[in-house]
TrEMBL record:
One of its GO terms (molecular function) is alpha-glucuronidase activity. One of its GO terms (biological process) is xylan catabolic process. PANTHER family: ALPHA-GLUCURONIDASE A. Transmembrane segments: none annotated. Keywords: Carbohydrate metabolism, Glycosidase, Hydrolase, Polysaccharide degradation, Xylan degradation. This is Xylan alpha-1,2-glucuronidase. Residues 144-463 form the Glycosyl hydrolase family 67 catalytic domain.
Length: 711
């Protein structure tokens, strides 16, 4: 007997210690350990009525069964008799007879929404469409995974935004631009025959958070993906994703007619060029009838575009839009452009370029705008384009991959950043015109709405390199579906599904996550500093750089430190970028005394002795912020250490080691930046703070020739 109990103990011990490698993401479906909860669920979820028979419904049914079997640790029975079942899943068209009237209007659910209802007798998941059912099933599983009561459910859930898309910056050679999680998950070499299980799990994960589109290729595009051989590979992926409600999109290289079509021009107004794209679209749609369309980076950072032919962005976008329109496709045209030649403040360039084109785009074109005017910096004011183009659907481009946010060595939870942007009032046409209301079409009644996130996914076993990178993928999807969810709520869900429902673990991990964004802003770019990272790889601080390829690639262009002070004057006395905003927004940033300090140096050149709200001078405040950022990173580290017994060994250790790197990198940012800015302020770093452990020359001398993600 004793021996047996020892064996059982050992088995349990090793089970707990078995590596959790992170592959299963938030879809772990391990048996619920809370016995009371398990008992309730077991009573509530018995026999299931779930007529399937279409690829989407089959996928949903399969997910539900395997999810429930894992969570409840029992075999689940299905029954064709609705009245014998306690869990009923059906589309409107297949509602079983004799069902009590449901308090829902199917019209309200649209094409993707779902409704979940529970009474004493049964739980119902219903929708207009198969895809709605798929989303409803995932939501139901989430309720179980996060330990929620199934009593009196009355949930109507409909996405606010139509196109919820991941952008992969993946190259055909499998390198990933700004990818920090291994190489591309698309193995082009073995496609189309070889279907990696990862493609299916990728689709499941996306469907579980409502993502319904994926751009497979880098915006710095390669025309080859549009050739027959590659299109067959793309088709294979599209076939895998379709049952999960996900459409594929490709980046279109504007010069493709020349490169693979052997034409002498790519002029969008040339008839032969138009015919080439029309034929290309036809070819694609013959293979992939639900192909989503194209994403285009044109005339930006060396990419070809219509301006090479003295045509406008609208000319270029419309030509492609016409090619895909007969098949219901869309074109996502990126607003991330800034001219090589123009001496204009880079902040202003996208607006100057696109605002005059409002109203000139076809109905199936969306303009994809990065959240800020520069480039995914730790904290940016919102792009002045939001709200400024009532006749052109603007879609959001967020960056999930942490190019400027600690890459994959740092735990930075991005939901607070996404929320801050979406909730910003643009004041266009008056108060309450939030960015969210711009992009969901509420404000200007856009016919199409969209949101994109630059993916952080690679072929690393845990998908995202840093185990907490998964939370950013998850948060993007959840907010794309419903931007009203709070960052805390999303973290709570994610932690419970990814780790466990242990109260202490959830509370502590949530604290870590929610403090991480502000901590990072403070130790990298406090008070509105921006673009002061290393050149090329963008890893680490380098505010001293003056020799990058062009003026507006240099950190000194952005921080403008001198003996007087710090920051970029974008008011009327400077570049006047402020004038691009609506009056309410201008008001916010106009006066150096009332500008929110988080954005101060974005808009003002502020004297070193300027009195901040805290009573400290600008210089002292800078020292304070950098130090509080480092201190916060250390707190995150201590908090994580308290969780040793509550997290599986493998992920505990991984995160622990990464947090040590994060603290090191935070101190490095602080030391390097303060030493450098000190050469202008000529003021000491107050004694109460930890003093830099090296000289400025030391920090300037650091080089990272093989830092990841740089092509
Ligand atoms: C920048 C990246 C660069 C991308 C570019 C883009 O450094 O690699 O190609 O954005 O969005 O942030 O096109």
């Amino acid at each position: 007997m004793k021996r047996w109990s020892l064996l059982i103990f050992l088995l349990l011990y090793f089970r707990a210690a078995i590596a959790e490698d992170g592959y299963r993401l938030w879809l772990r479906y391990d048996k619920i350990v809370n016995s009371k909860l398990l008992y309730t669920y077991l009573n509530q979820v018995n026999t299931i009525y779930f007529p399937a028979g279409t690829p989407v419904l089959d996928a949903a049914r399969q997910e539900l069964l395997s999810g429930l079997e894992g969570l409840l640790d029992k075999k689940i029975n299905t029954d064709n008799n609705a009245s014998a079942s306690s869990l009923l899943i059906f589309t409107k068209a297949h509602a079983p007879l004799n069902l009590p009237a449901l308090a829902l209007k199917y019209e309200d659910l649209g094409k993707e929404g779902f409704y979940i209802n529970s009474t004493k007798r049964s739980i119902i998941i219903t929708a207009n469409t198969d895809t709605g059912i798929l989303y409803g099933v995932f939501h139901f599983l989430r309720l179980l995974q996060t330990g929620q009561s199934l009593e009196h459910l009355d949930i109507t859930s409909v996405p606010r935004i139509q196109h919820r898309i991941l952008n992969h910056w993946d190259n055909l050679n499998r390198s990933v631009e700004r990818g920090y999680a291994g190489i591309s998950i698309w193995n082009w070499h073995t496609l189309p025959e070889y279907i990696d299980q990862r493609y299916i799990d990728y689709a499941r994960a996306n469907a579980s958070i409502g993502i319904n589109g994926t751009v497979l290729t880098n915006v710095n595009a390669n025309a080859l993906v549009l050739t027959k051989d590659y299109l067959l590979k793309v088709k294979a992926l599209a076939d895998v994703f379709r049952p999960y409600g996900i459409k594929v999109y490709l980046t279109a290289r504007f010069s493709a007619p020349i490169e693979i079509g052997k034409l002498s021009t790519a002029d969008p107004l040339n008839d032969t060029v138009k015919a080439w794209w029309n034929a290309k679209a036809k070819e694609i749609y013959q293979l992939i009838p639900d192909f989503g369309g194209f994403l285009v980076k044109a005339n930006s950072e060396g990419q070809p575009g219509p301006q090479s032919y003295q045509r406008t962005h609208a000319d270029g976008a419309n030509m492609l839009a016409d090619a895909v329109a007969p098949y219901g496709g869309i074109v996502m045209w990126r607003a991330f452009v800034y001219s090589n030649a123009s001496p204009e403040d880079r902040f202003k360039q996208a607006y100057n370029e696109f605002k005059p084109l409002d109203g000139q785009f076809r109905a199936n074109v969306l303009l994809q705008v990065k959240n800020g005017p520069i480039d995914f910096q730790p904290r940016e004011p919102v792009s002045p384009l939001f709200g400024a183009m009532p006749k052109t659907p603007l879609m959001m481009e967020f960056q999930i991959t942490q190019e400027y946010l600690g890459q994959s060595t740092q735990l930075v939870y991005e939901a607070p950043l996404f929320k801050e942007v979406l909730e910003t009032d643009t004041y266009q046409g008056g108060k309450g015109a939030t960015v969210a209301r711009v992009i969901d079409g509420d404000l200007h009644h856009y016919p199409q709405t969209g949101i994109a996130g630059v993916a952080n996914i690679g072929n690393d076993r845990n998908w995202t390199g840093h185990p907490f990178g998964q939370a950013n993928w998850y948060a993007f999807g959840r907010l794309a579906w419903n931007y009203e969810l709070s960052a805390a709520q999303i973290a709570d869900e994610w932690i419970k599904q990814t780790f466990s429902c242990d109260t202490m673990l959830v509370a502590t991990t949530q604290k870590i996550m929610l403090s991480s964004y502000e901590a990072m802003v403070n130790y990298m770019t406090p008070l509105g500093l921006h673009h002061i990272m290393g050149t090329g790889h963008h890893y680490g601080p380098a505010p001293w750089i003056t020799n990058a390829g062009r003026p507006d690639w240099n950190p000194v262009y952005y921080h403008r430190a001198d003996t007087v002070g710090l920051g970029f004057d974008r008011t009327a006395s400077g570049s006047n970028a402020l004038a691009q905003y609506a009056p309410g927004m201008q008001q916010r940033f106009m006066d150096v005394h009332t500008t929110p300090e988080a954005f101060l140096l974005w808009f003002h050149h502020v004297p070193w002795n300027f009195k901040m709200k805290s009573g400290r001078t600008l210089w002292e405040e800078l020292c304070y912020r950098y130090n509080s950022g480092v201190a916060a990173a250390k707190v995150m580290q201590q908090q994580w250490n308290t969780l040793e017994r509550r997290v599986d060994k493998e992920r505990f250790k991984q995160v622990q080691m990464l947090l040590a790197i994060q603290v090191k990198e935070a101190s490095w940012w602080r030391n390097a930046c303060l030493l450098y800015f000190q050469t202008f302020s000529k003021m000491p770093i107050p004694r109460q703070y930890e003093q830099p452990d090296h000289t400025l020359e030391y920090y300037k001398g650091l080089h990272f020739p093989y830092a990841p993600g740089n092509g």
